[in-house]
């Protein structure tokens, strides 16, 4: 799926030069992420949730075509009228769409043609901006900023999707080798001590949530509102792979008392016995990463777990997952620091710090919350097709917070709400524990 949004806030960088710079930077980074790929890699779809790389490249361009150029550039013509059918994801108000699970059946347009499509759209967007008067710029800038945040979401999906594509290939293709200075990929016999888990206590009370003030935000982050939170404590760091191994070894996947009913059904139907991409070889856990197969580093945050697995793990430990409000309260005032796609690791990082306080809140792994993805009080989706961006997904999904090693640093903020169905685990999803009252700490 793609969890995307729309701008209702004031847009920073509406200055034309800044806007053009942002546009060129974000569009170029999408193509930069494709550099390690071979042409054949671009076309594969390994499951309905996964889209081919080629489709991501085209769809992010179509977004500017559908929401910006069609509206504000009357002379614009798409290279092919069928692109509107092929690359519309889920916008029913825009028209018919190609069947999502069949995206991997499309050998045409070719990868070259899709890159030409990107050039075509880029040229049209930059031409529009060049000629825009103040009035047009005021209308176009929010749509362009939205399109760029949308593209950043697809950059993350592009990486998690290509990871799944490469993982099923017995030749074990490697997306990227760790940089020479990065020792994270060389850890076969390294023993990094897991930093002790600390509990950080927070006072409860009537608090404020959702986006306020300036800056881009998706519609689902508002309206800003008050909600009551009981006193709680949050774990200082995410659950590590080593800690999760203990859950597996304690027959965690087989113990009915630990699982939500829907989760137990998925475990049984899918035969789950470990996180996605994990495999035990000669008594040791290994997993497929964007850097190839590696032995699992016990000190790194566990990832590729569903909400069901996160919830069962928390129950096994005697604790629980945080609500999205608890997470947002804890994140208030903290800088957006962490291991992001900008760091070129493409994998959660070990936490070897002895620092106190909350760690790895941003980056590394999206943290499942126990909060259903629901509208905030007073939420109304914007009118028109763009209103389909977020609002219509507000059922049967759960909120995740904090971003991952595949997110861009400048894409995140404390109020950012990601959302996926509880069985999904092909994103970099992980676990942070919480408990009900700070006075147990
Ligand atoms: Fe999208």
Describe it.
The protein is an alpha+beta fold. It has two domains: 16-167, Four Helix Bundle (Hemerythrin (Met), subunit A) (Up-down Bundle), CATH 1.20.120; 199-436, paralog of FGE (formylglycine-generating enzyme) (Alpha-Beta Complex). It is built from nine helices and 14 strands. The strands form five sheets. Strands 12-11-10-13 form a four-stranded mixed β-sheet. A three-stranded antiparallel β-sheet has the order 1-4-14, with helices on one face. It has a three-stranded antiparallel β-sheet with strand order 5-6-7, with no helix packed on it. A hairpin with a 2-residue loop joins β6 and β7 (292-295). Mean pLDDT is 92; it is low at 1-13 and 180-190. Residues 2, 4, 59, 89, 150, 154 line the site of fe (ii) ion.
Write the layout of secondary structure elements.
Elements: H1 16-34, H2 53-72, H3 83-86, H4 111-131, H5 134-167, E1 199-202, E2 205-209, E3 225-229, E4 232-235, H6 241-249, H7 261-270, E5 278-281, E6 284-289, E7 292-295, H8 307-317, H9 324-331, E8 338-339, E9 362-363, E10 366-372, E11 398-401, E12 418-420, E13 429-430, E14 434-435
Parallel strand pairs: 8-9, 10-13
Antiparallel strand pairs: 1-4, 2-3, 4-14, 5-6, 6-7, 10-11, 11-12
The structure holds fe (ii) ion.
Fe (ii) ion is lined by residues 2, 4, 59, 89, 150, 154.
């Amino acid at each position: 799926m793609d969890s995307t949004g729309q701008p209702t806030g004031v847009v920073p960088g509406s200055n034309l030069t800044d806007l053009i710079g942002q546009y060129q930077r974000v569009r170029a980074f999408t193509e930069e992420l494709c550099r390690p790929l071979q042409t054949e890699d671009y076309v594969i779809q390994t499951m309905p949730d996964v889209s081919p790389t080629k489709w991501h490249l085209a769809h992010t361009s179509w977004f500017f075509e559908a929401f910006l150029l069609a509206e504000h550039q009357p002379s614009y013509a798409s290279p092919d009228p069928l692109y509107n059918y092929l690359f519309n994801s889920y916008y029913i108000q825009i028209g018919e769409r190609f069947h999502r699970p069949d995206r991997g059946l499309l050998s045409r347009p070719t990868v070259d043609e899709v890159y030409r499509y990107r050039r075509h759209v880029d040229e049209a967007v930059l031409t529009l901006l060049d000629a825009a008067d103040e009035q047009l710029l005021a209308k176009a800038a929010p749509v362009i900023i939205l399109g760029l945040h949308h593209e950043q979401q697809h950059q993350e999906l592009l990486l998690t999707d290509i990871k799944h594509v490469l993982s099923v290939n017995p030749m074990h293709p490697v997306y990227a080798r760790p940089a020479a200075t990065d020792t994270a990929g060389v850890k076969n016999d390294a023993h990094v001590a897991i930093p002790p888990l600390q509990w950080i206590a927070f006072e409860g009370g009537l608090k404020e949530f959702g986006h306020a003030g300036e800056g881009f935000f998706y519609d689902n982050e508002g309206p800003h509102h008050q909600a009551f939170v009981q006193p709680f404590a949050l774990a200082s760091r995410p659950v590590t792979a080593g800690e999760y191994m203990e859950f597996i070894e304690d027959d965690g996947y087989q113990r009915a008392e630990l699982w939500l009913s829907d989760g137990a059904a998925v475990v049984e139907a899918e035969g789950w016995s470990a996180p996605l991409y994990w495999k035990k070889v000669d008594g040791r856990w290994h997993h497929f990463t964007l850097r190839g197969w590696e032995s699992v580093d016990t000190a790194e945050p566990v990832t590729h777990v569903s909400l069901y697995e996160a919830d069962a793990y928390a129950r096994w430990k005697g604790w629980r997952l945080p609500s999205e409000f608890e997470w947002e309260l804890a994140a208030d005032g903290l800088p957006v620091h962490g291991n992001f796609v900008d760091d070129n690791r493409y994998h959660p990082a070990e936490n070897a710090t002895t620092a106190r306080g909350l760690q790895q809140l941003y980056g590394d792994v999206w943290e499942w919350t126990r909060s259903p993805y629901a509208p905030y009080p007073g939420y109304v989706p914007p009118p028109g097709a763009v209103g389909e961006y977020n609002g219509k997904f507000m059922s049967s999904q759960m909120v995740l917070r904090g971003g991952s090693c595949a997110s861009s640093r400048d894409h995140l903020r404390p109020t950012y709400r990601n959302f996926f169905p509880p069985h999904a685990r092909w994103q970099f999803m992980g676990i942070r524990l919480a408990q009900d009252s700070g006075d147990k700490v």
